[in-house]
Amino acid sequence: MNLGAHSSDDPAAQPLRSDAERNRARIVAAARTVFRRDGLHASMASVAREAGVGIATLFRRFPTKEELVAAVFADRMDAYVDAVGVALDDPDPWRGLAGFIETACAMQAADYGFADVLTMTFPTAKALEKRRDQAYEGVVQLIGRAKAAGRLREDFSPEDLVLLHMATAGVVNATGDAAPDAWKRVVALMLQSFEAPARGPLPDSPEPRALYKAMLRAGQACSASPEPGRKESTTRR
Fold first, then answer.
1. The pTM is what?
2. Could you tell me if 39 and 173 are in contact, meaning their C-beta atoms sit under 8 angstroms apart?
3. What are the C-alpha distances in Å from 178 to residues 2, 73, 182, 236?
């Protein structure tokens, strides 16, 4: 999107030098590897090591972790939005919703970093958040269609899908390579609990504002730099 021309002396208007562009591409590729393996709590220093560049070089290209996360997961978020579109095109509302949930959770299971992205929010990563909002609007439509068809329990809310992503991220993190398909059982159990008719009433879902606050707090914790000299966590490896 062109938001206006830059003046010729604006650094942002100048193309990156070839070596700078190579460094940027190397950093993004390295971050994709590190975040997929270790999740978003991996340090910027670990990304720099994986890329084979100095930490100063990394921060010149990506001054904040949120900017790096946005660059790494732009394509994954696009695929997530596309999955909503595929589900909306399905003439069977329940099959569309269930298929989207299975696809989204499979994306989480394949990438620890994306598992985290779906349970956090990054207000300064405008493009990433815009795509998330687009996906949310589509999911609301999916939920409404499935309820109108009598296949989804009436007390299901969009916040329940966020909770499902949180649960999936937790299972993926806990099981890792030891039981890599455990998430599939959890998702199948959850889908069966979503179907109408409901066996009984549910407790109230979290208020949207409260859930957003939780996602924001998780994103802020992820973006915080570790203390100098602190040993990095290896729980996801």
1. 0.80
2. yes
3. 47, 26, 9, 11
